[in-house]
Amino acid sequence: MRRSLYFILSFFILIFWSSCRQDFEFTPSTGQLSFSKDTVYLDTVFSNIGSSTYTLKVYNNSDDDILIPSLKLSNGETSNYRMNVDGMIGNGTLAGKTFENVELLAKDSMFVFIETTIDIQPLVASETQFLYTDAIEFGSGPNMQKVELVTLVKDAHFIYPYKDANGVIETLIFDVDGDGVEDETNVRGRFLEDSELTFTNEKPYVIYGYAAVASGKTLSINPGARVHFHANSGLFITNNASLQINGSPSLDPDLLENQVIIQGDRLEPLYEDIPGQWETIWLINGSVNNSINYTTIKNATVGIVSDGNQDDPTKLIITNSQIYNSSNFGILGRATSINAENVVLNTSGVSSFAGTYGGNYNFTHSTIANYWSTSFRQFPALLLNNFIVDAENTVFTNPLESANFTNCIIYGNDNPELLLEKINSEIFNFKFTNSLIRFDDPNDSYSDPQYDFTNTAYFENVMFNKDPQFLDPDNNQLYIAIGSPAEGAGITSGNLNVDITNTPRTSPPDLGAYNATEFED
């Protein structure tokens, strides 16, 4: 008992002594620090847009507690980088730039967090991109160690909403619903000036808020243009306005140098495939002659919203284009007209294509897939209906005059990948021809007449539940393999005799947007 009591007493004395100890002895660093990396690449940023936060870990592998007399950026207070050292930001004009007498215990480590915001103009007047460098210096003199910092900075055309004299940001006023009456909105943005109505490939375009195209105007986007939207931003094509995206075929399938690419404004690899970084391209009811060709749209909330004008076959013509990683819909049509050929849709939080509240839809040689996580998805790749429900739960119907899918693949990682929602009192015309669809109904849950797959008025030469053998659908590579059930299963149809890569189609043609190809091991 005494021995136990002695042990317990000794233990608490030891703990008390350790917790009160203040006599650590720190030895000046002799240049024996080690680092998680010798160069920190802060990836690519746009001029005047802050980067992500990057991390450098610093290790003291010695048996001594050391003191780093100085830890600073080589360019000092003029540096465009800023640091946080284990939670410390420093003081005065050198805050985030210089730190003194930084302690690091034996066999311990610390974090240095690095960010940057760079204005390219004072650095290079004539270049559209510039490599900006600096370094973090640990210590000085012969014991100094360095970690390099490198950032590629791109110049851009920036489009911001205007502010009035009181700093109030402009909001848009336009005819929202196509009834001829302008509506006040709380949407921050502005109408593009006439000088801004042609986007070129000279420099990227970065849009804050919504850029709107006024009545009677056309926004033209040339081959090779890059358009980036900030968070909560997008594009409105208003009543009697038009959008013409004029991409062209590219020689390099990775660079897509002649395609138009539309995405968010975060260029770091971390954001490469993050959905919902910006909002949408919205073709308002009353917009006309909208066309999209050789374009990639990715990481939006909704890639494209098309409203109204269902009897206008030129409302939206989209060809040779792909829409990926939309947090809601890839394309959402509402009582509208969409003509699509060589289109690929994939990875959508709701449906990749939804033709709702009726309309006219014609898809040829298109791949409508959805490989969003099935744990968070309740809707199929393709949804068609002829009604809408308002906030008061009032149901409004509108005829689905036509919905034709020819030589298409409708597939995904859930089952079924097709939903046909019909209000019986309203027109509901659709047809799938020479297509491949994932739809399995082992419990006979879908007994409505529109699911009679033996009815050739609705389904003609359609294959069900045959794996199209995509290359890597989880990474939006929807090429089909040689030997796929989709190979040679199509009929001559559409206006194009090439696939989405500008390769001549075979005869008979393959289903979907791509010709079958031999995959490399």
Structure description:
This protein is mainly β and 521 residues long. The protein folds into two domains: 26-154, Immunoglobulin-like (Sandwich); 157-480. 4% of the residues lie in helices and 44% in strands. It contains one helix and 41 strands. β9 (129-138) and β10 (145-154) form a beta hairpin. The longest helix is centred in the first third of the chain and has 19 residues, at 2-20. The model is unreliable at 1-22 (pLDDT under 50).
What percent strand?
Answer: 35-45%
Number of helices: 1
Enumerate the spans where pLDDT stays under 50 for 5 or more consecutive residues: 1-22
Number of strands: 41
The chain-level structural class is mainly beta
The average pLDDT score comes to 92
- Rg on CA atoms, Å: 29 Å
The percent range for helix content is: under 10%
Distance between the termini: 72 Å
Overall form: globular
The overall number of domains is: 2
Biggest sheet: strands, sense, closure? 27 strands, mixed
Question: Could you name the key traits of this structure?
Answer:
521 residues; mainly beta; Immunoglobulin-like; 27-stranded mixed beta sheet; 1 helix; 44% strand
In short:
The chain has 521 residues and is mostly beta strands. It is 4% helix and 44% strand.
List the helices and strands and how they pair.
Layout (H helix, E strand, L loop, with lengths): L1 H19 L5 E3 L5 E2 L3 E8 L7 E7 L4 E9 L7 E5 L12 E7 L3 E9 L12 E10 L6 E10 L2 E3 L11 E4 L8 E9 L6 E2 L5 E3 L2 E4 L4 E4 L4 E4 L4 E4 L4 E5 L13 E5 L13 E6 L6 E4 L1 E4 L1 E8 L8 E11 L2 E20 L4 E12 L2 E4 L11 E4 L1 E3 L5 E3 L2 E7 L2 E4 L5 E4 L9 E3 L2 E2 L21 E2 L2 E2 L5 E3 L4 E4 L41
